[in-house]
Amino acid sequence: MQNRNILRLLFTLLWLYISIHKVDSQEPCSSPDPNIAGTVYESTFASFDPNSALYRTDTTIEGINQGTQTESGVNITIVRSARTQADLNLDSLFELVTLPVTDSSFGSRTFIRLKSAIDRDGSSYIASDDLDTVEFQLSCRSLKDPTPTKFFLMQLEIRDINDNAPIFRNAPYSASVDESAPVGTTVYSGITATDLDAGSNKEIEYAIVPGDGSTNDGSTRFVLPITSRGEIVVGNSLDFESVRSYTLTISATDKASNVAVRKQTTTTITITINDVDDLGPKFVYSTCFNVNNVCFNPTYTTSVTSGSTAGTLVFNPVPVDSGNPNAAVDIIAEDGDTLNAPITFTIRQTLPSGYQNRFQVTTQKVSGSANRYRTLVSQTASIDRSEVTELELFIEAKENLAHRYYDRATIKLSFAEINTGNQTSSDCNNNSPIFSAPVYFVNILEGNYTENHQCILMISATDEDLDGIDYDIQSVSNKGDRVFSLESNIEGKAVITCVGSIAKGLSFGIVVRATDRVLPISRRRRGQSSSNCKMWKQYFLAVLFTLVVLTMKTVNSQEPCSSPDPNIAGFVYESTFASFDPNSALYRTDTTIEGINQGTVTASGVNISIVRSAATPTDLNLDSLFELVTLPVTDSSFGSRTFIRLKSAIDRDGSSYIASDDLDTVEFQLSCRSLKDPTQTKFFLMQLEIRDINDNAPIFRNAPYSASVDESAPVGTTVYSGITATDLDAGSNKEIEYTILPGDGSINDGSTRFVLPITSRGEIVVGSSLDFESVRSYNLTISATDKASNVADRKQTTTTITITINDVDDLGPKFVYSTCFNVNNVCFNPTYTTSVTSGSTAGTLVFNPVPVDSGNPNAAVDIIAEDRDTLNAPITFTIRQTLPSGYQNRFQVTTQQVSGSANQYRALVSQTASIDRSQVSELELFIEAQENVANRYSNRATIKLSVAAANNNNPVLSVPFQGYIYENSPVGTIPRNDNGSNLLRISVTDPDLIVGETGQYTFTVNTGLFRVNSEGYVEAAAVINYESTPVVTFTVTGTEVGTQNPRSGIVQVTVNVRDLNDNTPVFGAPRYVDSIVEGDYTTSNQVLLDVSASDADSGANGDIVYSIQSVSNNGASKFSIQPSSQTGRATISCIGSVAEGEIYVIMVAATDQGQPVSERRTATVPVEVTVTPLGTRPPVIEAPAFTVYVSEAVPITSSVFTVPARDPEGLPLSFSIISGNVNNDFGINSTTGEVRTQRALDREATPQYTLNIRVQDQSGLSAQTTLTIIIQDVNDNNPVFTPVTYTFSVPEGRSNEDVGTVTATDADEGANANINYQISPFSSTGSSSLFTILPSGQIRTAIALDYETRNSHVILILGIDGGASSRTGTATVTINVQDVQDTIPLFTETNIVRSIPERQPVGTSVVQVTENSVSLVLIRIVAL
Question: Is the model's pTM score more than 0.90?
Fold first, then answer.
């Protein structure tokens, strides 16, 4: 519904606009709007087609350009305007062509067409050098009215086509990122492409193009989450050690609306992966078995002598170098990264424990190496082998960096007995066992060998000493220590057997130890000593088995106090106090140590206890946290095993989000003493992991949040990147995803305006366009949710961010006045009107708004504009253009800030030079309000300025012809010319107006039958009867409207009323009576009498044909009727023989000749004829009275009337005037009865005559009639002023002041007596322009008079009557100017010194003072 209302509003505005600007009757050189907007498209030279509609636009100017027909021909030319680009050659770019159209009465119209291809796109991506609009003027001169030239402002938009592909800036690109960067990290945000096109053709979307799948293809490692921004983000985990650089292909594609024409450009970015400290040190020696380039289970051997200190120890590697089995090595470690972190060595633990303080470790950097470090291990205190026969030192190599990654190696240390000199054996144990092969490879089929063991390999070693060799498995990778067993046979060989279940897909590395046999302890003490013999040595060799299997745990021998690994790893879960259940498997872990703890059976009983280690946190009470419990198991031959169990709930999470205070691992030792061998205590290193449960929700830091962003920020702009939440948990429970929650849909709901594109980062980004003027702030609810693997356990926290929209300078000024029609709070088409007088300067102009204030139509307004933004940018006004052009320099604009307002500015427009309205009568000023800030947005208003005439002349009224109108026409009917082709219209010309300009006038008439409408057309004001008023002559007075002192002109109008056949003929008498002397008139017909009928109609409607309808007494053949010699009459004659005493009644018909025949009108009258003897009948006159109209200007002897009379007896007649002939002005012919003038007539002396005329026959019988002669006026008298001279007085200094009134009369009548007063320009003092005179004869001052300049003026007043040939009377008016006190008396001298002899009489003249220029004078008189 809202969209429909908007459409209705737009259509209403369009209708109003068209109604205001519509062209009446499509006159040549007319257009709906003086400001013409058109469009053409740019083109490439290859695709340009001059005949395509894409490259032309309609000027909307009516008429046929270069046409030769007066009614339609126009001459249109292209003219530069002030804003036409200086380097633009319009003639080479555009041409005018005439093309057919359907919406013009002329059938064709002029179009602007490109001559050749044009490129609107500039050389840079900045729009300022684009040729997007060309402004010029179109001049038009019509052949119908060639005098004025009309100018139209043409703004031609050059529309864009997508002819440019995006261009990357500063490409190709390179960037680097740390391998540890989490997913979502921004790698590079400087990818930028530009496009020379415009609009959507200029908008660009970025994408990563799929790669070739090679190692360095980064298309799957990185993402570009926001297509509007060239920002590359980490999409998957990185590893410097695997791939050190990636290459991506980036595409930039424009957003042309037609997808088929979109253009794309590609470039590359090379991303280098930076190494970070994510790998610990690694031990290095040549014989170590490497997995992923890391030494697997680094082990060294050495020996010391019991009870003595060995100093710096010497180490052999495990396995030994087969080529040099006795070769010693240094313990060396290096950083696994390329950062070359410094390394420090420490003995972290001993097994059994408590022997660290017997050794000292020194770290040295290996000479010549950047990343290798050596440890020197020295024994600082003796060890008695009666306490321990074998010792394992766990030496740790740790980085000296923040992470302090480390690796450990094992030093297996043996003790030799002190030589007592009693040894009997001659052999020194100075050789190590040597395996027959350094590495063994074997394959095995998958299967379950738990019951049916599978022999895999037999291995053997040799020793040059005399002692035998023992074999054992030292370690197995992939937790396969329970899957394999080793047994020695009597031949000195060992058999490795698979005793568990294995599956396809894995491999195992088994380290087998071969140990030579030395003498028993009792004998060693007694044997011979030899300074060259070491008491014993043992060596280890790692053997790799390539097995395609996976294993299950089993126990090698399941001896009490045995375990698959001396380093035991276990885990329990943290718990809340509410959910803790000590019987739950979550809170216990298997120690894997065989035997029944606290058992009493020798074969299975063990005593296990928890013992602190060097790495056990000092503030941790192990006894309060853990307990040992025995629980049944299925994979032990003892049926049960010892578990470590939590005593109570434990919280692994520290008090901060930093992991360093987490209780994630507890390290301690487990000691085990078997009842089966109670003299030996075994120690196991226990690393107990406290696993996390998701018991903490994320916590936002520094929440709630606030941010601000400019309303102009493009989509993809980062608004705020500081949203951070932490979680005290660990692992995925600690990882956080951020989202924007859906809002309430209110105006301030920002959930649809902003996006959070990378859920791993709390970064808010603009998602859609912003507008400060619509919404000034948005609220968003942000959620932080951990990524617990079980979705149901995930915890969420929310906070809010308030984003304030900053106003920017994106809106120009707007003009403001109360009556302007506002669209989106902006004045639509602001327009002002004003006027100036031709030939003068008006100073500061006063403006009226469009539309005017209906409550106060004459109210003036200031031109005021204000910044539409809240930035209150200062505004400057400029007249940017005039139409016609070239008049800017006639005006000056001053800008003022409106008092009391922070953002409104006023334009004061002053006229600085006069304008001649003969050159231009209407002028449009385009005033521009422009901000004085960087963007310099502007808005324009139109000032419609009319150049008024200096009102020095009366309007001249004229009519082109006499009008004709049918009688009985309704009120409002306009008379036409004789043939009906044109309407009767009063034409008004005014010498004050320029050619082609029409003024506004009000018309008055001196008749009630007609009126004149506002357009000058004469209209019937009443229903007119032709019979009563066949002609109407009246005077029209036209008075100026809109001038300061309106002037008037008059014209006489004649309208002829045309007849309609609306009257029946009427006989002059209701019956006629005549007599005839008896006799036979067959051969000599006897005229009896004339009958006459009149018809008020005219023409054929009034033409009468007479006929005899019937005759009584069978007399039809005795009488005839013929047209009379006098028009309108018919003569009845006797054509047969009649006898005295007979009476005949003749029925005479009078029929008009109107058409059609069926509508003719007929009247009848009886004529009674009596046959009498001779001498009994007087003359007959047709009417008792007649009236005629005669102009007083007719010449003497003019015929004015002939008396219609006859004698019924056929006797001759005589005529005479018996009375009423004043001054004998008329005479009558006694024989014919014709009346003529005998003297000049004077209507003013005798306006009317009434003549009594007598007609007599020879028998003395007579008849009389009356002739009334009305004299019609002619303009033969001048207006006469009474008196002919006037004297008036008027005060100086007052304009439009009443001076006095003059009066003239005219003896004529009608229009000839209407007087128009004028001031003659030839007044003797040249003062005619100083005064004006009104139609009433009132004289007023035109300007303020100055007594000091001239104290008296003489003007000549003309009184001009309204006759067709007007006559003039004059009067002389003397106007005395009355002085008022408006000057200060001034003296000619300021210091007068005169001398006078002494003793001069009183009254002697001393000095004469005259006033001129000084108001004070000092007079000094010196007596001599």
Answer: no
